[in-house]
Amino acid sequence: MIDENEKSARQAKTSRDDRLKSALRENLKRRKLQARERAAGAEPAPNDDGSLDKGTAGKTGT
Q1: Residue 46: which of 34, 57, 59, 62 has the closest Cα?
Q2: 23-55 as b/e, with b when 16 or more CB fall inside 10 Å?
Q3: pTM
Q4: Which H or E run includes 55?
Q5: Gyration radius from the chain CA atoms
Q6: What CA–CA distance (Å, rounded) separates 44 from 47?
Q7: What distance in Å separates the CA atoms of residue 45 and residue 7, rounded to the nearest whole number?
Q8: Quick one: DSSP state of residue 50?
Q9: What is the DSSP code (8-state) at residue 24?
């Protein structure tokens, strides 16, 4: 016969395993989404003044 302590310990382990599996699955989904966003957003971001070129940021056209 199974002792009550063994049964509760087994249930706690199963519950913990399920929570870990779920957390790992969500983490993987989030990281895949971040990788897709990085790959899609590979174009250069504009500088503070709206220019795309690093060399002209903050300079005037003279």
Answers
A1: 57
A2: eeeeeeeeeeeeeeeeeeeeeeeeeeeeeeeee
A3: 0.51
A4: none
A5: 26
A6: 9
A7: 57
A8: S
A9: H
Contact between 52 and 44 under an 8 Å Cβ cutoff? The reply is: yes
DSSP conformational letter for 18: H
Contact 49, 58 (CB under 8 A): yes
- Which among 43, 47, 46 is positioned nearest to 58, based on CA atoms? 47
Q: Which two tokens stand for residue 26?
A: 């969500």
Tokens of 47: 């500088």
Alpha helices by DSSP H, listed for the chain, are 4-40
For the segment 4-60, what is each residue's pLDDT rounded down to a tens digit?
888 888 888 899 999 999 999 999 999 999 999 999 987 655 666 666 566 655 566
